[in-house]
Amino acid sequence: MSESKIKKCKMPKCNKEVHRNKAQFCLEHDRRIKGYKDIAEKGVLSLALVGLTAVGRNALKKIL
Amino acid sequence: MEDYLIELPNKTSFNIDVTDSALYNYDFNSYSLQSLQEYASLSVVEKMKKSIYSNISKVALIDKLIQQGETKYVADVSDYAKEKLDSGEWVLGIRKKTGETYAVIKDSLTGRNKSFLTLNKEVVKDLGTLPELSAIQGQLASISEQIEQLNHLVQRVEQGQYNDRYAGFFSARQLTIEALSSNDEAIKKELLISAVKVNNDTIGKLMLSLHQDALEFIDIKTKRKDAKRIENILQNSMGYLNSTVQLNLVAYTALGEEQSLMATLGNYNSFIEQVLLQSTNDERSVAWLIDNAYEGNNGRFVELTKNVTSKIYNLMEESKTKRMVGESHERIENKEM
Q: For a tag site, which of A14, A53, B173, B305 has the least CB within 10 Å?
């Protein structure tokens, strides 16, 4: 029989347990990280859009 | 709590000071209702005194008590006893032991009982549950203290759409203050009943919004900014719920209704147990997840809610046992006074 270990949040200085068995962080930090991820995703998406517009503009210039 | 002794002091400073601004606290932090609870508990003592003296005059009761007492060396025993009672050296009390209710003269300095007399059936029936209600005042104060500790978590930020719910507390508090300060028993009763109605309305609304807000707060999909806003609302609602429950306890104490008071506690206890402390699918309770989502390491929601529920549970269990004991003793004839 395996003993269930208490999994602590991986954020430094945080003493809380993880909020789900498969989670790495407590709910507070998981939410915070998810927030950063969302911002990063939005940033990448915006950059990709800018890049695509630039590529498209160059391609259009070449055609015309 | 089956056996107890309640003192019935000669003079109870029962008059509530309506000019005391502390009664009308609007600092939106924690609302201490301790003074109101004390007034309500004194009103129970007054009711018991009225109930006893309406069946037998105070003079007759003292005379009968001292006939069995130890004061036989004094020439005029009655006057001597009355003097001692007036000075507060002796105090009248009600004592319940092994199911029987006695009138007692107690020495307030030594704590010794000087004399006691079995109260007749009619007096006991008239007293109803008032002695029990008076005897649990200490435990109620301890529960109120625990409930107030829950309020200290609160960071008050008033939200427009919740103000109608929170306003119920102020309305009921004012009704309770006005009731306790009224000299007319009928007006007092009516105001207290109105306060209970407003309280129950507020309690219902707050419980429902707490349930919804708690689920939203512990949902990982809720964004951090929204979670912060919900956390404030959640703490606010919890604070007002606790204060409103305390107000209901004050109102039922003043009304002398022990079972209704237990029903208020039972409702609050069930809400905490079923909504906040019951485990979700992930074997974590909502209260645990609230602490887990709380910013910082100081979340004490689980600890405090568990303390409150265990205290309420003990009190309710005692009340249940007491009722069962009381029922079996009803069949036993009391000695006539």
A: A53
Tokens of B161: 């759409």
d(CA B272, CA B312): 11
Query: What is the average pLDDT score of chain B?
Result: 79
Nearest residue on chain A to B283, alpha-carbon basis:
A20
> Which residue type sits at B308?
V
| Predicted interface score ipTM higher than 0.90 | no
Quick one: which of B12, B15, B33 has its CA closest to B23? B33
From residue B262, alpha-carbon distances to B109, B141, B154, B212 in Å are 34, 14, 26, 26
Task: Confirm or reject contact between A42 and chain B (CB < 8 A).
Answer: no
Cβ A31–B220 below 8 Å, yes or no? yes
* H or E element at residue B92: strand B90-97
Q: Measure the CA–CA gap between B316 and B53, rounded to whole angstroms.
A: 30
**The pLDDT of residue B64 is above 50:** yes
Closest residue by Cα to residue B95 from B10, B3, B8:
B3
- CB distance B220–A26 less than 8 Å? no
Q: State the smallest CA–CA distance between residue A35 and chain B in angstroms.
A: 7
